[in-house]
Write a structure and sequence with these properties.
With about 400 residues, chain A is of the alpha+beta class. Helices cover about 35% and strands about 25% of the residues of chain A. The interface between A and B is large, with 63 and 63 residues.
């Protein structure tokens, strides 16, 4: 994979999870000064690592991210803040960095204190195993997983107008409690392009809005989520401008969309990745609200799990989104088959549409209204028996 | 049961459901002119019977309600409107009433035309079996059920200041897709008190807001819901005023609360009735929004199903409700045990709280914030494997 230059990665087993064949910590280090941008959870109840990182990002030189799973360090009071700072400062000290050049991320159960002894042992292990290769990059992706079934990572490469090659690598975790506004999602993007701090921050916010914030698994928005991007300029020290920055943003958007879809597809118990598109609204926020209402409807999500082309539940969910529209001017497609038009169902072969749901992992719902030209898109997963099993039995 | 005077009830099997041991139609008739008030679904996509009834209620003389299950007559265009009017007019004609003195209610699958032949046979059967006794009243309650496991009805009796006895009887159906703003809920209240039209309408709206609109099962708000009250004055022809009307409203509120809780308790697959109270907010709408966020969180609902006193999921759901509050000034009780106070979890015996969840059908979540004096309450049920089974396998 085309990993960005001058970044090293590690994943480590620090004894936080009970199964030693898994990894439960990760570290990402830039060997040279890096611009940092961040997007954080909007939950009123937020984790100590979020509070600490928010004060350090944006930054013109952030070099290190250290992550632990299993314990989220949320609702842990003053001691939690101290622990989050300690994680960052101990990790920073391994590389002679100031503590403000490092941040910690934590995900897992909330309300428990971090097991600092294990964490510090883990930081030591991570700092000794850091490497700039695919194996380490993927180990870092594994080291941030909670109930994810798959590690999630991807890379991109592009050329600047001056012919230089720049690389972007992203890794993330999701699963459960995923919703817009940064649910239990941790993501770290690294790039060897150079970016001005303000450019990086504004861009990351825009990109998050059309990628990670378009994912909803169960509507729950978690307390611990962070998306952080580090840009170290190791491939080209001149900050991107003009067409180069435009191309970079486009590439970054594609990378983040890919990661976001991986999160939706790996939602707890998911048997389908569902894309909900709502078009023809008076405003983008109207379109988003209707899309969210459909994507979060348990009745829609269970219908998809059951292979049921239930246009009634979809139209019903659109109808209670709180946005006024005329059903008589609406068109609904499921997997490109027309189910509903102008206020009434269309005759369609239910068994054929049902088959198309059952036989494909991806399902598409496309609702077009006659209220305007604004559109929105959300990714989600279906609601299966496994979802309930995972969440009724998860230890508090 | 103290049934109101001069009302007759019937339930009937018209062949709409496949199981002839069930009932699938109901009729309620007032033998004397009745004031009618109504509260209707706020879904943009609404059923034909809702459209027709909205035009006839409030009314100073509505006499008949006829109900069918199995087919909701929603998204059925002009023909649907015609069918809803036909149901009402054919029923009205059996008693020499004008068609505007009758309304139809329908619940069930949407997008299908009513099987009018069966419906008309059913109306004939209903009109011939109407009676003013407990058995008929309960048959009417059974005749409006869809996936409800239990018929839902109750009665009240009170005295006016002039010593007259007045009675209120209510029947309803719920189950699945129940949420504030009148989900797939049908309810008919009958009383032999007399009420002025404006009084009845304003009162019913207020009562619905603190009873039926406090129920949420899965957040989905249906297309077909109606709450209708008929007051025929058969016990006392003088419209209630002063203390009498206050007492009546109080009694009606209790009756509607009882019915609303029955709906929440009978949510699809429910193993717990969950009451969510949020106190200490800056406004009632803030309190409602936070309560709704908790009550509709799939993670909270699966935790309750699993007997897990997971304060983290509850605080997290409160935190993403979109209302600002200080976690440092909050107190959370589950079944009266303190779980969380001032931003941090309290030490509690998890096994004891878990036992109290497992061993009781009712679970109480009480969150007190330090933002003001406004309160709100919602009833919901937990999320079980059965919920998914029912909704993934329900015929579209």
């Amino acid at each position: 994979m085309p990993l960005p230059l001058a970044f090293r990665f590690a994943g480590y087993y620090a004894g936080l999870k009970s199964d030693p064949s898994q990894l439960d910590m990760a570290m990402i280090v830039s060997d040279t000064p890096a611009t940092a941008a961040g997007v954080f959870t909007q939950n009123v109840v937020c984790g100590a690592p979020v509070t600490v990182a928010r004060a350090r990002i944006p930054s013109d030189d952030l070099r290190l991210v250290v992550v632990n799973t299993r314990v989220a360090n949320t609702c842990t009071g003053e001691q939690g803040i101290t622990d989050a700072k300690t994680m960052a400062s101990v990790a920073a000290s391994k590389f002679g960095l100031a503590e403000e050049q490092a941040i910690a991320m934590s995900t897992g159960v909330i309300g428990r204190m971090l097991p600092m002894e294990k964490i510090l042992t883990g930081i030591d292990g991570l700092s000794k195993t850091l490497a700039a290769n695919d194996e380490s990059f993927q180990a870092a992706a594994r080291g941030i997983m909670t109930t994810d079934l798959q590690p999630k990572f991807t890379t991109r490469e592009l050329q600047t107008s001056s012919g230089k090659t720049i690389r972007i690598a992203g890794l993330c975790k999701g699963s459960g409690m995923i919703a817009p506004n940064m649910a239990t999602m941790l993501a770290v993007i690294t790039t060897d392009a150079a970016l001005k701090v303000n450019d990086a921050q504004a861009m990351l916010k825009r990109v998050a809005d059309v990628s990670f914030n378009c994912v909803t698994v169960d509507g729950d928005t978690s307390t611990s989520d962070m998306l952080v991007m580090l840009a170290n300029g190791a491939a080209d020290a001149t900050p991107l401008t003009g067409n180069d920055i435009t191309n970079f943003e486009k590439t970054l958007t594609g990378l983040c969309e890919e990661l976001a879809k991986k999160i939706a597809a790996d939602g707890e118990g998911a048997s389908h990745l569902l894309t909900v598109e709502v078009n023809g609204c008076a405003s983008e926020s109207d379109a988003k609200q209707i899309a969210r209402s459909i994507a979060e409807s348990p009745l829609v999500k269970t219908a998809i799990a059951g292979g049921d082309p239930n246009w009634g539940r979809i139209m019903c969910a659109a109808g209670y989104a709180g946005i006024n529209f005329k059903p008589e001017k609406s068109l609904l497609l499921l997997n490109e088959t027309e189910l509903f038009r102008n206020g009434q169902p269309v005759t369609f072969e239910a068994s054929k549409v049902s088959k198309s749901i059952r036989e494909n992992f991806e399902t598409s719902v496309k609702l077009t209204l006659g209220e305007g030209n604004a559109n929105a898109k959300l990714w989600t997963c279906d609601f299966t028996r496994q979802y309930i099993a995972i969440n009724a039995d998860y230890t508090s």
